[in-house]
Known about the structure:
- The chain is an alpha/beta fold.
- 35% of the residues lie in helices and 18% in strands.
- The protein has six helices and six strands, in the order βαβαβαβααβαβ.
- A six-stranded parallel beta sheet has the order 3-2-4-5-1-6.
- β2 (30-34), α2 (43-49) and β3 form a beta-alpha-beta unit.
- It is globular and about 40 Å long.
Amino acid sequence: MIQCYYGDGKGKTTAAIGQALRMAGAGKKVIVIQFLKDGNSSENIMLKKCGIKVLAKKMPEMFIDMSDSKMIKEVSIQINDLFSMIDESYDGIVLDELLDALTLGLINEGIVYDRLVDLKENHEIILTGRMPSYKLKMILDYSSEIKKRKHPYDKGIMARKGIEY
């Protein structure tokens, strides 16, 4: 099955990580692949301690400059490389921020769609990001929108270690 936590609010990755921990606690083998993140989020320490494999690649910058063709190419290669690391031996596969990589055009939606359809029968797939495409919405089994009402960033408060990352 495919679960999706999306929207502009805080908590998408947190929900996905909670589900990964629940699966691991039930004896399931889980992998978390983080797209557009450098792998330094605080949850990764605990995930690894719980036997959950975490994959990420260092991004060239915190935010991708979509007008920088060299950066786009570099990030696209990293995103596609991470996507190719999906391992079918895992029961649970968390694809954190994959929706945003798709929205930015850093990975081909057709390839992602076909792979997800192939995996969903025998795996629990969890997607996060801002917005699934119409095509992806059609194959979701769970779909939860997380809507921002208020966030410290609106007041200029930057992300805090252990809270937002």
